[in-house]
């Protein structure tokens, strides 16, 4: 058994240690299919894929049955840049776009960022990637959608009355930066592989306050993840994934597993179906998340999941958490024969 396969098996055992850390809820955007939104985990996952170009879109709708629904859209595109004279490594670059809106005042976060990474091929089965990230964020809200006590005239609510509130700033811009490190191991003989690493976001603790006199620093977010895939039979892979997000006093952990069934391995006609479930942890449990994915032609990956809320908040949500959809598309170039020696991820 090759070393990378052993690493994947050990990682599968260590995966389940993640949920036993301190628990609470994360502050930044988060996805139940975190393994299908890699650049939200670490900039070091830029370019860590089997293609040359990768496009990913993630959509999440949460708590629509409650009074404060959340809607999140996350889109990324990243590409590798090979240098034939340096076959033991390559640079990658990525573009990130985020839009998130929540609550009656439509508190929104719009973000555009760039990520860059360098991947070093230790050998044909082991790769180490260092990534960096920078971007700009706008936070905004609409005060016209809010109501205030002063608009109650003693008998009824009167929306024409003054709110007696002075909103000088309803939007805020700030810069944001991050770094990350990723290890990728892969087997040359099987489909077994492993990504493990982490990222640090909000390195400069940007000020997210809407009032100039206030200072509401956004705490750094520490992201850790482990994503093994272990081939257990010719048509079957055992898929595992775990992540932990720490931001200030807040903590969120997810873990999940699934089985990927390869229905066809014919070249350019590959088809696989994956079914599984995830669980989001906090001090009292949060959500059970059934998932299903379709993999086509080593190019397309479509994932659908649904959060079933099991926390105390289920009283408001009636156990409905929300749907999530991810779509990934890979483009792989056809290279001349003299370029095949350039290191290639599985």
Tell me the count of domains.
1
Named CATH architecture: Beta Barrel
The biggest beta sheet reads: 14 strands, antiparallel, barrel
CATH superfamily: monomeric porin ompg
Determine the structural class based on helices, strands and strand pairing. Answer: mainly beta
Lateral strand order in the biggest sheet:
1-2-3-4-5-6-7-8-9-10-11-12-13-14
Span of the ends, CA to CA: 18 Å
Q: What is the CATH third-level topology name?
A: Porin
Give the ordered list of helices and strands: HEEEEEEEEEEEEEHE
If you average the pLDDT, what whole number results? Answer: 82
Shape: globular
Could you walk me through the main structural features you see in this protein, from its secondary elements to its overall organization?
The chain has 2 helices and 14 strands, in the order αβββββββββββββαβ. The protein has a 14-stranded antiparallel beta barrel with strand order 1-2-3-4-5-6-7-8-9-10-11-12-13-14. It is mostly beta strands and 346 residues long. The chain has one domain: monomeric porin ompg (Porin, Beta Barrel), CATH 2.40.160.40.
Task: Give a short synopsis of this structure.
This protein has 346 residues and is mainly beta.
Feature tags:
50% strand; 14-stranded antiparallel barrel; 346 residues; 2 helices; 14 strands; Porin; mainly beta
Secondary structure blueprint with pairings:
Blueprint: H1 3-15, E1 53-62, E2 70-81, E3 89-102, E4 107-121, E5 126-140, E6 171-186, E7 193-201, E8 221-233, E9 236-247, E10 250-264, E11 271-281, E12 287-296, E13 300-309, H2 314-317, E14 320-331
Antiparallel strand pairs: 1-2, 1-14, 2-3, 3-4, 4-5, 5-6, 6-7, 7-8, 8-9, 9-10, 10-11, 11-12, 12-13, 13-14
């Amino acid at each position: 058994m090759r070393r990378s396969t052993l690493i994947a098996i050990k990682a599968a055992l260590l995966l389940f240690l993640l949920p036993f850390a301190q628990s609470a809820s994360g502050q930044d955007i988060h996805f139940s299919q975190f393994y299908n939104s890699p650049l939200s985990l670490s900039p070091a996952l830029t370019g860590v894929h089997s293609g040359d170009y990768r496009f990913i879109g993630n959509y999440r709708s949460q708590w629509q049955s409650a009074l404060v629904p959340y809607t999140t859209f996350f889109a990324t595109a990243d590409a590798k840049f090979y240098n034939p004279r340096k076959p033991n490594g390559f640079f990658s670059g990525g573009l990130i776009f985020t839009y998130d809106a929540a609550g009656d005042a439509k508190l929104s976060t719009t973000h555009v960022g760039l990520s860059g990474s360098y991947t070093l091929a230790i050998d044909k089965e082991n790769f180490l990637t260092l990534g960096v990230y920078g971007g700009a964020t706008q936070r905004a809200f609409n005060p016209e959608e809010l109501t205030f006590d002063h608009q109650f005239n003693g008998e009824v609510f009167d929306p024409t009355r003054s709110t007696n509130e002075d909103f000088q700033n309803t939007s805020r811009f700030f810069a944001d930066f991050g770094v990350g490190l990723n290890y990728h191991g892969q087997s040359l003989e099987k489909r077994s592989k492993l990504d493990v690493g982490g990222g640090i976001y909000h390195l400069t603790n940007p000020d997210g306050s809407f009032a100039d006199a206030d200072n509401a620093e956004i705490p750094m977010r520490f992201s850790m993840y482990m994503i093994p895939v272990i081939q257990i039979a010719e048509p079957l892979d055992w898929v595992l994934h775990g992540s932990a997000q720490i931001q200030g006093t807040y903590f969120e952990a997810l873990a999940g597993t699934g089985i990927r069934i390869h229905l066809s391995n014919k070249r350019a006609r590959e088809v696989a179906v994956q079914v599984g479930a995830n669980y989001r942890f906090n001090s009292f449990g949060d959500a059970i998340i059934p998932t299903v994915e379709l993999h086509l032609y080593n190019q397309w990956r479509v994932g659908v999941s649904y959060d079933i809320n099991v926390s105390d908040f289920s009283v408001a949500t009636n156990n409905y958490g929300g749907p999530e959809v991810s779509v990934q598309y890979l483009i792989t170039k056809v290279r001349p024969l003299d370029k095949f020696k350039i290191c290639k991820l599985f």
